[in-house]
TrEMBL record:
This is RNA polymerase sigma-70 factor. It comes from Draconibacterium halophilum. Keywords: Sigma factor, Transcription, Transcription regulation. Residues 22-87 form the RNA polymerase sigma-70 region domain. The keyword tRNA processing does not apply. SUPFAM superfamilies: Sigma2 domain of RNA polymerase sigma factors, Sigma3 and sigma4 domains of RNA polymerase sigma factors. One of its GO terms (biological process) is DNA-templated transcription initiation. The lineage of its organism: Bacteria, Pseudomonadati, Bacteroidota, Bacteroidia, Marinilabiliales.
Length: 197
Protein backbone atom coordinates (compact mmCIF):
# COMPACT_ATOMS: atom_id res chain seq x y z
CA UNK A 1 0.00 0.00 0.00
CA UNK A 2 2.80 2.45 0.88
CA UNK A 3 5.60 3.23 -1.53
CA UNK A 4 9.27 3.05 -0.71
CA UNK A 5 9.39 6.85 -0.32
CA UNK A 6 6.93 6.63 2.58
CA UNK A 7 9.13 3.97 4.21
CA UNK A 8 12.15 6.25 3.76
CA UNK A 9 10.30 9.17 5.38
CA UNK A 10 9.22 6.94 8.29
CA UNK A 11 12.83 5.86 8.74
CA UNK A 12 13.91 9.53 8.78
CA UNK A 13 11.29 10.24 11.47
CA UNK A 14 9.09 12.51 9.36
CA UNK A 15 5.94 13.20 11.49
CA UNK A 16 3.78 13.76 8.39
CA UNK A 17 4.64 10.27 7.10
CA UNK A 18 3.73 8.75 10.49
CA UNK A 19 0.46 10.65 10.44
CA UNK A 20 -0.39 9.36 6.95
CA UNK A 21 0.42 5.77 7.87
CA UNK A 22 -1.64 6.04 11.08
CA UNK A 23 -4.62 7.57 9.25
CA UNK A 24 -4.58 4.94 6.52
CA UNK A 25 -4.03 1.88 8.70
CA UNK A 26 -5.90 2.75 11.91
CA UNK A 27 -9.29 1.24 10.90
CA UNK A 28 -7.74 -2.07 9.83
CA UNK A 29 -5.37 -2.23 12.80
CA UNK A 30 -8.32 -1.64 15.11
CA UNK A 31 -10.34 -4.43 13.47
CA UNK A 32 -7.37 -6.77 13.69
CA UNK A 33 -6.68 -5.89 17.33
CA UNK A 34 -10.32 -6.54 18.28
CA UNK A 35 -9.82 -10.12 17.17
CA UNK A 36 -7.61 -10.53 20.23
CA UNK A 37 -8.92 -7.93 22.70
CA UNK A 38 -12.54 -6.83 23.18
CA UNK A 39 -11.94 -3.85 25.50
CA UNK A 40 -12.01 -0.68 23.34
CA UNK A 41 -9.73 1.28 25.67
CA UNK A 42 -7.13 -1.48 25.64
CA UNK A 43 -7.37 -1.69 21.85
CA UNK A 44 -6.52 2.02 21.65
CA UNK A 45 -3.59 1.49 24.05
CA UNK A 46 -2.23 -1.43 22.05
CA UNK A 47 -2.42 0.48 18.77
CA UNK A 48 -0.68 3.45 20.41
CA UNK A 49 2.05 1.14 21.75
CA UNK A 50 2.44 -0.30 18.25
CA UNK A 51 3.13 3.13 16.75
CA UNK A 52 5.49 3.97 19.62
CA UNK A 53 7.40 0.77 18.82
CA UNK A 54 7.46 1.75 15.13
CA UNK A 55 8.91 5.15 16.13
CA UNK A 56 11.51 3.56 18.41
CA UNK A 57 12.55 1.01 15.78
CA UNK A 58 12.38 3.33 12.79
CA UNK A 59 16.16 3.24 12.29
CA UNK A 60 16.04 -0.52 11.76
CA UNK A 61 13.29 -0.36 9.12
CA UNK A 62 14.22 -2.00 5.83
CA UNK A 63 12.72 0.43 3.35
CA UNK A 64 12.20 -2.25 0.69
CA UNK A 65 9.92 -4.22 3.05
CA UNK A 66 6.25 -3.55 3.79
CA UNK A 67 5.74 -1.08 6.64
CA UNK A 68 2.15 -2.31 6.81
CA UNK A 69 3.19 -5.91 7.50
CA UNK A 70 5.72 -4.68 10.06
CA UNK A 71 2.97 -2.83 11.96
CA UNK A 72 0.60 -5.81 11.91
CA UNK A 73 3.32 -8.09 13.30
CA UNK A 74 4.13 -5.60 16.08
CA UNK A 75 0.44 -5.25 16.93
CA UNK A 76 -0.10 -9.01 16.94
CA UNK A 77 2.83 -9.52 19.31
CA UNK A 78 1.60 -6.70 21.57
CA UNK A 79 -1.85 -8.31 21.70
CA UNK A 80 -0.51 -11.76 22.47
CA UNK A 81 1.83 -10.42 25.15
CA UNK A 82 -1.10 -8.56 26.71
CA UNK A 83 -3.27 -11.71 26.70
CA UNK A 84 -0.45 -13.81 28.15
CA UNK A 85 0.18 -11.31 30.95
CA UNK A 86 -3.51 -10.98 31.67
CA UNK A 87 -3.91 -14.76 31.88
CA UNK A 88 -0.91 -15.08 34.19
CA UNK A 89 -2.37 -12.44 36.50
CA UNK A 90 -5.74 -14.18 36.68
CA UNK A 91 -4.66 -17.76 37.13
CA UNK A 92 -2.13 -19.69 39.15
CA UNK A 93 -2.32 -23.00 37.34
CA UNK A 94 -0.19 -24.11 34.43
CA UNK A 95 -0.92 -22.79 30.97
CA UNK A 96 0.51 -26.00 29.44
CA UNK A 97 -2.98 -27.44 29.13
CA UNK A 98 -4.19 -24.67 26.86
CA UNK A 99 -5.63 -25.97 23.65
CA UNK A 100 -3.87 -25.09 20.42
CA UNK A 101 -5.76 -22.27 18.76
CA UNK A 102 -5.41 -20.14 15.70
CA UNK A 103 -3.94 -17.38 17.85
CA UNK A 104 -1.25 -19.62 19.27
CA UNK A 105 -0.46 -20.78 15.77
CA UNK A 106 0.03 -17.15 14.76
CA UNK A 107 2.24 -16.54 17.77
CA UNK A 108 4.48 -19.51 17.05
CA UNK A 109 4.97 -18.70 13.41
CA UNK A 110 7.64 -16.07 14.12
CA UNK A 111 9.63 -18.49 16.22
CA UNK A 112 10.06 -21.28 13.71
CA UNK A 113 13.45 -19.95 12.70
CA UNK A 114 12.55 -19.77 9.03
CA UNK A 115 13.31 -16.87 6.76
CA UNK A 116 9.84 -17.03 5.27
CA UNK A 117 7.39 -14.16 5.23
CA UNK A 118 5.15 -13.85 8.27
CA UNK A 119 1.53 -14.87 7.93
CA UNK A 120 0.52 -11.20 8.10
CA UNK A 121 2.85 -10.34 5.23
CA UNK A 122 1.43 -13.16 3.13
CA UNK A 123 -2.14 -12.21 3.99
CA UNK A 124 -1.59 -8.52 3.23
CA UNK A 125 0.10 -9.32 -0.09
CA UNK A 126 -2.78 -11.60 -1.04
CA UNK A 127 -5.26 -8.93 0.05
CA UNK A 128 -3.51 -6.33 -2.14
CA UNK A 129 -3.47 -8.76 -5.08
CA UNK A 130 -7.19 -9.40 -4.62
CA UNK A 131 -7.88 -5.65 -4.63
CA UNK A 132 -5.73 -5.21 -7.76
CA UNK A 133 -7.75 -7.90 -9.55
CA UNK A 134 -11.07 -6.09 -9.03
CA UNK A 135 -12.67 -4.37 -12.05
CA UNK A 136 -11.44 -0.76 -12.32
CA UNK A 137 -14.51 1.08 -11.00
CA UNK A 138 -15.05 -1.44 -8.19
CA UNK A 139 -11.38 -1.19 -7.22
CA UNK A 140 -11.56 2.62 -7.19
CA UNK A 141 -14.65 2.65 -4.96
CA UNK A 142 -13.32 -0.03 -2.60
CA UNK A 143 -9.93 1.68 -2.26
CA UNK A 144 -11.42 5.11 -1.58
CA UNK A 145 -14.02 3.88 0.92
CA UNK A 146 -12.49 0.89 2.66
CA UNK A 147 -8.74 1.52 2.45
CA UNK A 148 -8.58 5.31 2.53
CA UNK A 149 -11.61 5.54 4.84
CA UNK A 150 -13.52 8.13 2.80
CA UNK A 151 -17.28 8.56 3.26
CA UNK A 152 -19.43 6.69 0.73
CA UNK A 153 -21.53 9.76 -0.07
CA UNK A 154 -18.43 11.84 -0.74
CA UNK A 155 -16.99 9.13 -3.04
CA UNK A 156 -20.31 8.82 -4.91
CA UNK A 157 -20.32 12.57 -5.63
CA UNK A 158 -16.63 12.63 -6.57
CA UNK A 159 -16.83 9.88 -9.19
CA UNK A 160 -20.38 10.63 -10.33
CA UNK A 161 -22.32 7.52 -9.35
CA UNK A 162 -25.21 6.96 -6.95
CA UNK A 163 -24.73 6.06 -3.30
CA UNK A 164 -26.53 2.79 -4.01
CA UNK A 165 -23.98 1.94 -6.69
CA UNK A 166 -21.12 2.66 -4.26
CA UNK A 167 -22.68 0.24 -1.79
CA UNK A 168 -23.06 -2.41 -4.52
CA UNK A 169 -19.42 -2.03 -5.61
CA UNK A 170 -18.22 -2.40 -2.01
CA UNK A 171 -20.40 -5.47 -1.35
CA UNK A 172 -19.24 -7.18 -4.56
CA UNK A 173 -15.61 -6.27 -3.89
CA UNK A 174 -15.77 -7.73 -0.38
CA UNK A 175 -17.31 -10.92 -1.71
CA UNK A 176 -14.62 -11.35 -4.39
CA UNK A 177 -11.79 -10.60 -1.98
CA UNK A 178 -13.24 -12.85 0.71
CA UNK A 179 -13.60 -15.74 -1.77
CA UNK A 180 -10.00 -15.39 -2.96
CA UNK A 181 -8.54 -15.14 0.54
CA UNK A 182 -10.66 -17.99 1.90
CA UNK A 183 -9.32 -20.25 -0.85
CA UNK A 184 -5.77 -19.38 0.17
CA UNK A 185 -6.22 -19.22 3.95
CA UNK A 186 -9.25 -21.34 4.95
CA UNK A 187 -8.09 -21.46 8.61
CA UNK A 188 -8.16 -17.67 8.93
CA UNK A 189 -11.85 -17.00 8.40
CA UNK A 190 -12.14 -14.74 11.46
CA UNK A 191 -9.16 -12.58 10.52
CA UNK A 192 -10.31 -12.28 6.91
CA UNK A 193 -13.79 -11.26 8.04
CA UNK A 194 -12.35 -8.57 10.31
CA UNK A 195 -10.03 -7.28 7.60
CA UNK A 196 -13.02 -6.73 5.32
CA UNK A 197 -15.32 -5.12 7.91
Amino acid sequence: MFDIQTNVQIKKGNPAAFKDVFRMLYPRLKGYCKLFVSDDNKVEDLIQETFITLWEKRNSIKTEHSIESFLFVILRNNCLNFLRNEKMEKTTFSIDVEEVSELQYLYQIDFLGKEEKSLEEQLIESFQEAVDELPDKMKQVFTLCKIEGRKQKEVAEEIGISLKMVEKHIAKAKEQIRKKLMNQYPMLIIIITLLLD
